[in-house]
Write a structure and sequence with these properties.
One of its GO terms (molecular function) is pyridoxal phosphate binding. By secondary structure, this protein is of the alpha/beta class. The chain is built from 14 helices and 16 strands.
């Protein structure tokens, strides 16, 4: 019995959708892209969505769209995949890491506020909070802080399609709905909620940013008469621009998604709610099994609005448990090595002890199998194996 920490679920309907698209006239830049974008925007409650190559590309596009420049400072969390920080470096900006709240594992807003208060206004340009493991950041609170200091927000919601938090008025705020962050990004990597093989999505309520993103994801090229800056005569037309004409107006990238990936995403999206429901059932079972156990230092728990990309427990002998589970065919994972202590970021002066809560979390965290097709028997085996490991240590 091999049980990974996460896995895709490809159904006959998914396969049918992809085959139909492969047999159509378009493999890329066709109608499925817009269909997927519109459906995803509706799903999260945003006005606009821009499909792209992957979550990293989505972050890079966002940083470019917000004009991150050489030397500008942006705050993010150390407990995230490196792309949340790297997108700032791609544009020449400087990454400053806050610390996490040890109870939620999310970027601690008090840590961010301390950073902002310690420097003159204008020192920082933006914040990239992460809905880590699927737990939604309270973006209402972050928006208030960002407005106070004139900052933008990119919500890294790669772990949290279908997740939400409840605002101060008691209203549900979906991850990526654009009500508090200028931009939000999602990933369609195979272990995520919606699998496209690779793929990403940006959502926003800002029309100007939306149009800028569309341009940047395709080499900075536009193909629209009302956007051209060169003359009709230069373009080779008579009284109007010829149909072949296009202009590269910015330095963009080829960050497009294919039509057959979009078709797979659309099919997966159609059962996204059922997937979230199952993830929450699995989380509840883990919580009940581990609640009150003396070897558990912390766990993801049962949290309203949590999308449960990951279910995390904290234990003292993390290495021992990790190796024991692998012997049982259970392939747990670690999320994440603190980003500020990666060799690349150490060169900028980051060192052990700089972010104590993040570093303490890393020493004990382990992500357990969490995906909708995880069976009850498999989950029981995971739980029993963890109990057996700790019973043997007594």
């Amino acid at each position: 019995m091999n049980i990974p920490y996460g896995r895709q679920n490809i159904t006959d309907e998914d396969i049918k959708s992809v085959i139909e698209t492969l047999q159509s006239d378009y493999l890329t830049q066709g109608p499925k892209i817009l269909e997927f974008e519109q459906a995803f925007a509706k799903y999260v409650g945003a006005k606009y969505a821009v499909a792209n190559a992957n979550g990293t590309a989505a972050l890079h596009l966002c940083a470019m769209a917000l004009d991150v420049k050489e030397g500008q400072k942006v705050i993010t969390t150390p407990i995230t995949f490196a792309a949340s920080a790297n997108c700032v470096r791609y544009c020449g900006g400087e990454v400053v890491f806050g610390d996490i709240d040890p109870e939620t594992y999310l970027l601690d807003i008090n840590s961010v506020r301390k950073l902002l208060e310690a420097s003159p206004k204008g020192t920082y340009q933006g914040i990239i909070p992460v809905d880590f493991a699927g737990r939604a950041v309270d973006l209402e609170a972050y928006k208030k802080l960002a407005d106070e200091y004139g900052l933008w927000i990119i919500e890294d919601a790669c772990h949290a399609p279908g997740g939400y938090f409840t605002d101060s008025k008691g209203q549900q705020q979906n991850c990526g709905n654009g009500n508090f962050a200028e931009l939000a990004i999602f990933s369609f990597h195979p272990v995520k909620h919606i699998a496209c093989g690779e793929g990403g999505m940006i959502t926003t309520n800002d029309e100007a940013l939306y149009k800028k993103l569309l341009k940047l994801r395709t080499h900075g090229i536009v193909k629209s008469d009302d956007l051209y800056t060169n003359s009709i005569a230069f373009a080779g037309g008579d009284d109007k621009y010829p149909l072949w004409y296009m202009e590269m107006q910015d330095l963009g990238y080829n960050y497009r998604l294919t039509d057959f990936q979009a078709a797979l995403g659309l099919s997966q999206l159609s059962r996204a709610n059922a997937g979230i429901d199952r993830r929450r059932q699995i989380a509840a079972t883990y919580f009940e099994a581990f609640n009150g156990k003396n070897y558990i230092q912390g766990q993801s728990g049962v949290v309203e609005g949590h999308a449960y990309h990951l279910y995390i427990i904290e234990i003292e002998d993390r290495l021992g448990l990790y190796n024991y589970l692998r012997e049982q065919g259970i392939y747990a994972q670690i999320h994440y090595i603190p980003c500020h202590l990666m060799p690349y970021y150490r060169q900028f002066g980051w060192k052990e002890g700089d972010r104590p809560f993040s570093e303490a979390y890393y020493k004990q965290c382990i992500s357990l199998p969490m995906y909708p097709t995880l069976s009850e028997a498999q989950q029981e085996f995971v739980i029993a194996s963890i109990d057996q490991f700790h019973a043997a240590k007594k």
